[in-house]
Design a protein that fits this description.
Among the domains are: 35 residues; 67 residues. It is 38% helix and 21% strand. The protein is elongated and about 85 Å long. It holds the Pfam family BrnA_antitoxin.
């Protein structure tokens, strides 16, 4: 702890610093605490809670590795899907009317292995809904990764 003389010298030096003048009483009164809500920050793409059955030995083994065992299970499953080329993506699909690119006849979020499969799933969905004319339109897709687009029908 500084002595009273050292504390006074530090205060004098701080008050004389032109790059960092002290705040006035009015400025101090306007300060608000920097707080955010409890818990993790809100994210657009979050993990989904689910219920799944594992063999006791599998679950006990992951738990024995310590905190983060659920994340490790997710990572192992993700690695498997990538290595076996079974990882599906989310695509934002827009359907344009035949002969009129300005006329959008539908938008969907599609879960598929690739863009080609996403386009085919959209066309099958439209045909199953009795929208054969729309199914002949051009389907444009964009890979949106893990993002969620609210208010659009999901085709899996």
């Amino acid at each position: 702890m500084p002595t009273d003389e050292e504390d006074a010298a530090i205060t004098r030096a701080a008050l004389s610093d032109p790059d960092n003048p002290p705040l006035t009483d009015e400025q101090l009164a306007q300060l608000k605490p920097a707080r955010r809500g409890r818990g993790r920050p809100v994210q657009e793409a979050t993990k989904v809670p689910t219920s799944i059955r594992f063999d006791n030995l599998v679950l006990d083994s992951f738990k024995a590795l310590g905190d983060g065992w659920q994340t490790r299970i997710n990572d192992v499953l993700m690695e498997y899907l990538v290595e076996t080329r079974q990882l599906h993506h989310r695509f934002h699909a827009t359907v344009q009317a035949t002969g009129n690119e300005q006329n959008k006849v539908g938008e969907f979020v599609v879960v598929a292995l690739d863009s080609g499969q996403a386009k085919e799933k959209v066309k099958q969905h439209l045909r199953a809904a009795g929208r054969d004319d729309d199914a002949r339109g051009q389907v444009l897709t964009v890979d949106i990764g893990n993002a969620a687009i609210r208010d659009l029908p999901l085709i899996q």
